[in-house]
Write a structure and sequence with these properties.
The complex is a heterodimer of chains A (about 170) and B (about 425). Chain A is α+β, with helices and mostly antiparallel strands and about 170 residues long. Chain A contains 5 helices and 3 strands. In chain A, strands 1-2-3 form a 3-stranded antiparallel sheet, with helices on one face. In chain A, α3 crosses α5 and α4 runs antiparallel to α5. The relative contact order of chain A is 0.19. Chain B is of the alpha/beta class and about 425 residues long. Chain B has a 7-stranded mixed sheet with strand order 4-10-9-8-7-5-6, with helices on both faces. A 4-stranded antiparallel sheet of chain B has the order 13-14-17-16, covered by helices on one side. The longest helix of chain B has 23 residues. Classes of the chains: A alpha+beta (about 170), B alpha/beta (about 425). At the A-B interface, α3 of A face α14 of B.
């Protein structure tokens, strides 16, 4: 049975209690994107600045549960200053961690991993996620996965919009 | 002593709980404390047995076969309709009680038949700020299609309707949609007063009774509404069946909703003749097993007595409001009316600044099942200024020990999030 300590790791509670990069950047010039979780009414506002092919600044607004808020906070710390390509990789790896069955996590039996999305690596390099790996216990609580991925989907949308605006400029 | 209080109201919860197999389950190694009956209630053995007995001995399609079990299936199906009609005081159950999929489908039926016949561009509909999406969205869909306007009866900070402006709000309104009991606040609305004013203004009244029928005596004549919808699965019955009651004279004049078998008297190449009430609104093979389960649920509730159910739930709500305040003080805020007599046993609350999802997750570890979210009432959530609430809701099988377990688990959640 999955215990609460699998879900509420100390890092998660720390980011929930003291969220990093909280607030909103002035928009414009920042890209502003809102994300909603229709199941619980949570909403998140990601504002990000993309310059010279990198996420130079990011802030997180909105309200939500400990999982959605800590995931957003951890995400902001992880992506700030990274190149857009690196951030996209990170989004892919993080969402991969959130979409696989717990049995396919490293160190466990991987034979039952039929739920890995096509094109995803069979074994995720969870170690490369650093502190974000603390969120891997969320997959044991399926209804909470949407909480953890809300900010990441919102960020991905923000990157898409920033790129299409650059392309059209 | 909880049991003494309960026996005083004619309900011996300890004995009654034994009728509900699910309530004997363990969750996370603890006895289950089921406090989510406003979402869906548990079923007593009597309901499960009636359904199983029908399946094993009598199943055949209804209103068709000229053989023994088909006739018996039809008899049991129509007997369920009579039981439901008796339960809500319907003057003529054999014509006025329609089986639908759930309360939502019943409300959609009214929007699609009465609404499409009587509502035209520029007409107004009056709803309340505390409606469930089921009594909002069908009207919004129709409003968009027909160019109708929707007005709203506001609520005060205690979750009661503000009716000072009712006459002005009703001016020019053709239809009023109102919940008998809020699924978030527990508020019991003065439906009969509003219905009287609505009728004076020439409007018909559609009551969403999904939360009230399972918990209080219901008499459609006393309520004064024209249509009343509710779901079986919130009143100890199965999912997949609900009821729409409507006044005979209104239903008789309406076109069919869904087309198909059962709802016709005759079909020719150039058209069809709809069936009589109630079958005109029951296209296709109905949920027969579920209707029989609903009938058994009604008989179970009648056996306990709805006055006793209501008295028990007032007593339990009183105990819960007092205990929450005594043990959690200013850390907890319960939405809705303060007086247990003015509300049902639905307690939506905010606890410190812990998100409802997190509350519900921690409570689950203690075997306590509560709902977290917007409860399909987003306009109300916006009025309350919250995205979500946690909600504990009672049924006749809950007692004071369930409340104690809830409060213990809430204290643990508070400690966990520091």
């Amino acid at each position: 049975m999955a215990g609460l300590e699998d879900l509420y790791r100390e890092i998660i509670l720390d980011h929930y209690r003291s969220p990093r990069n909280r607030g909103e950047l002035p928009s414009p010039p920042a890209q502003r994107v809102e994300g909603f979780n229709p199941l619980c009414g949570d909403e998140i506002v990601v504002t990000l600045e993309v310059s010279d092919g990198a996420v130079s600044d990011i802030k997180i607004g909105g309200t939500g549960c400990s999982i959605s808020q800590s995931s957003a906070s951890l995400m902001s710390a992880a992506v700030k200053g990274k190149s857009v390509a690196e951030v996209r990789d990170l989004i892919r790896t993080f969402k991969g961690m959130m979409s696989i069955h717990e049995a396919t996590l490293p160190g466990q039996d991987t034979r039952g991993g039929a739920e890995v999305e096509a094109g995803e690596p069979q074994l995720l390099d969870v170690d490369s996620l650093g502190e974000l790996a603390a969120l891997q216990g969320v997959v044991k609580f399926p209804v909470r996965i949407k909480c953890a991925t809300l900010s990441w989907n919102t960020l991905a949308q923000g990157l898409d919009e920033a790129e299409s605006e650059t392309a059209n400029a | 002593m909880a049991s003494l209080t309960n026996v005083a109201h004619g309900i011996d919860v300890e004995t009654l709980k034994k009728d509900f197999p699910l309530l004997a389950q363990q969750v996370n190694g603890r006895p289950i404390t089921y406090l989510d009956s406003a979402a869906s209630s548990q079923r007593p053995r009597q309901v499960l047995d009636a359904m199983r007995n029908y399946e094993e001995t009598t199943h055949a399609n209804v209103h068709r076969g000229v053989y023994g079990i088909a006739e018996e299936a039809t008899r049991r199906f129509e007997a369920a309709r009579s039981s439901v009609g008796r339960f809500i005081g319907a003057p003529n159950p054999a014509r006025e009680v329609l089986f639908a999929k759930n309360a939502t489908e019943g409300l959609n039926l009214v929007a699609n038949t009465w609404g499409r016949t009587h509502l035209h561009s520029g007409d107004a509909i009056l709803l309340t700020e505390m409606e469930h999406h089921a009594n909002i969205v069908p009207w919004q869909m129709l409003a968009e299609e027909r160019g109708l306007t929707i007005r709203w009866i506001p609520i005060d900070d205690d979750g009661a309707l503000i009716l000072d402006d009712l006459d002005r709000l009703l001016d020019g309104v053709k239809l009023v949609g109102i919940t008998c009991m809020s699924n978030v606040l527990g508020t019991l609305n003065p439906v009969s007063d509003i219905a009287r004013a609505a009728h004076d203004a020439g409007a018909v009244v559609v009551a969403d009774a999904a939360q009230s029928v399972p918990h209080l005596p219901t008499d459609v004549s006393a309520l004064g509404c024209d249509f009343l919808a509710f779901s079986a699965h919130k009143m100890l019955g199965p999912t997949g069946i609900g009821v729409l009651w409507g006044r005979d004279e209104l239903l008789s004049s309406l076109p069919p909703f869904l087309g198909g078998g059962e709802m016709i008297l005759d079909v020719r190449k150039d058209g069809f003749t709809p069936n009589d009430l109630p079958w005109r609104f029951e296209a296709g093979t109905p949920p027969i097993t579920e209707a029989i389960g609903l009938g058994a649920a009604v008989e179970y509730l009648e056996g306990v007595g709805m006055e006793s159910v209501r008295a028990h739930e007032i007593s339990l709500t009183t105990y819960a409001l007092r205990t929450l305040e005594e043990r959690l003080g200013a850390d907890i805020h319960v939405f809705g009316p303060k007086d247990p007599v003015e509300r049902g046993g639905v307690l939506s609350f905010a606890y410190r600044d812990i998100h409802p999802h997190d509350i519900s997750q921690i409570l689950d570890q203690y075997g306590v099942c509560v709902r977290a979210g917007h409860h399909c009432a987003k306009p109300l959530m916006r009025r309350l200024g919250v995205n979500a609430t946690a909600r504990a809701s009672f049924a006749l099988y809950n007692d004071e020990s369930d409340v104690d377990t809830l409060v213990d688990a809430l204290s643990e959640a508070g400690a966990f999030f520091g």
